[in-house]
Design a protein that fits this description.
The complex is a heterodimer of chains A (about 120) and B (about 160). Chain A is of the alpha/beta class and about 120 residues long. Chain A is built from five helices and five strands; from the N terminus they run βαβαβαβαβα. A five-stranded parallel sheet of chain A has the order 2-1-3-4-5, sandwiched between helices. The two termini of chain A are about 10 Å apart. Classes of the chains: A alpha/beta (about 120), B alpha+beta (about 160).
Chain lengths: ~120, ~160
């Protein structure tokens, strides 16, 4: 499972990158990280990841618009939205645009590992 | 109604609690919560501050402020070894963003939130707060003091 991380926070990108080293995610590999929607779309076309973790609140192209753009490029991509926007309407909107899962910040290591495994198994 | 209710403010205390429990496995204590009188005392800030501006049916901003030593300790708890100034600023921004984003569950789509601004030193916007009396929540995590300043108001 080739994965791309999209988040405007360095420390969140770094944390998720480290978690991919967990033995339970041994079939995951990181193809790259992006700090905004425009960077993500460019990296996506260069690397064709199978899975993306997607922040929502980012400068420029936000996570919902970016999810929509990536799904147009490859509808088979699995997208896990990871966001602090914990209202139901935001989650439903992201899922309507093509995301397969939604994980609320703050998240524990276990929660994100479980979410990645669940989406990769679908 | 132009003011915030007790429940509105408790939402922020709960979001602080959740952030530190989930991310660092160490709870944060709410030491005090009060209304600041800007004319008498500037709201307490500490070195590094993350700011989230709100819009739509609300105006103002939410500030999370902490000293650099605390932010280094938070990063250590997250197993982040790169504790450069950029990452300390990133961390206060991310905490402000997470707390504000969680609070939006209570306020709903009527409260739009911005991407975080990250500031070293005293945030000049606090010299002209949106509220006459911003809400101050004093936080203790380990032995460090930090603050959350809720300077938002409902628009009529």
């Amino acid at each position: 499972m080739r994965m791309m991380i999209v988040d405007d926070s360095n420390i969140v990108r770094s944390r998720i990158s480290r978690l991919i080293e967990d033995p339970r995610l041994s079939n995951f590999s990181l193809v790259g990280t992006a700090s905004n929607g425009a960077e993500a779309i460019k990296l996506f076309t260069q690397t064709s990841p199978d899975m993306v973790t997607m922040d929502l609140t980012m400068p420029g192209i936000d996570g919902v618009e970016c999810t929509e753009a990536l799904m147009e490029l490859n509808p088979d991509t699995r997208i896990l939205v990871i966001s602090a926007l914990s209202d139901k309407a935001t989650a439903i909107n992201a899922l309507k645009k093509g995301a397969q899962g939604f994980l609320y910040k703050p998240f524990s290591d276990e929660e994100i590992i479980d979410a990645l495994l669940e989406i990769s198994a679908e | 109604m132009s003011d915030l209710s007790k429940t509105d403010i408790e939402v922020f205390s709960h979001a602080i609690d959740q952030y530190f429990k989930q991310t660092t496995h160490e709870p944060a204590l709410i030491e005090a919560a009060y209304l600041a009188d800007n004319a008498q005392h500037a709201p307490p800030t500490y070195g590094f501050t993350g700011v989230i501006n709100v819009s739509a049916k609300y105006a103002g901003a939410i500030y999370f402020s902490a000293p650099s030593a605390m932010m280094r300790h938070v990063l250590t708890s997250m197993k982040e070894n790169n504790q450069c100034e950029e990452n300390l600023l990133d961390a206060v921004g991310e905490i402000a963003n997470t707390i504000s984003g969680n609070a939006r569950k209570h306020f709903g789509e009527h409260m739009e939130i911005s991407v975080p601004e990250k500031i070293i030193g005293y945030p000049s916007a606090l010299n002209k707060p949106s509220r006459d009396y911003p809400y101050i929540i004093l936080i203790k995590w380990k032995h460090y003091a930090a603050s959350l300043i809720v300077d938002i108001k409902k628009l009529q």
